[in-house]
Amino acid sequence: MKGSRTDRVLTAYRIGDPDGAHPIYDSEGARLYPGRWNTPTCPIIYASEHYSTAMLEKLIHANSVLPPNQHYIRITIPNGTSYEVFQPASCPGWDGKDESLCKAIGADWYDGKRSALLLVPSIPARLERNVLINPRHPDVAQITHELPEPVWWDERLYG
After folding, report:
1. Which terminal CB of the chain, N or C, has fewer other CB atoms within 10 Å?
2. What single DSSP character describes residue 126?
3. What is the tens place of the pLDDT at every residue in 75-97?
């Protein structure tokens, strides 16, 4: 993975409960319930490049039983933010049930603070990407987000 800097303003989306135990833009959930790309010792903020991908990821991880009061935030990533792109071809098996390879990659990226963002493929939407945000990287101080807005779920998605 080679690091670069964004040449434009990027947008990402994250869905959660604004009245929950943790803010939507927070890594505490990833510390308590690690995902594919992190362990409890390297809590990251998971987001998606597209609103629809954020919805799909939420549906997959909720096992089609959505928690109440879901809202989204639009995250603005300014021009010049450091990022890396994960190359799936270089890591066969990254998308399997054994997540240890991805966790090791995520921990190395997080601990090394090589970039603020790591762009990785979405498992359920392979042509789309998720945006992993390293809250310990200095570039993150410039990332902003809007106030939460309600998510309107079409019942055909899960009914």
Report:
1. C
2. T
3. 999 999 999 999 999 999 999 99
Question: Strand, helix or coil at 53?
Answer: helix
Q: What Rg, from alpha-carbon coordinates, does the chain have?
A: 15
Q: What is the largest CA-CA distance in the chain?
A: 43
d(CA 58, CA 56): 5
* b/e 82-117 (16+ beta carbons within 10 angstroms → b): bbbbbeeeeeeebeeeebeebbebbbebbeeebbbb
Q: Is the pTM of this model over 0.90?
A: yes
Q: What is the DSSP string of 8-40?
A: S-EEEEEEE-TTSSS-SS-SHHHHHS--TT--T
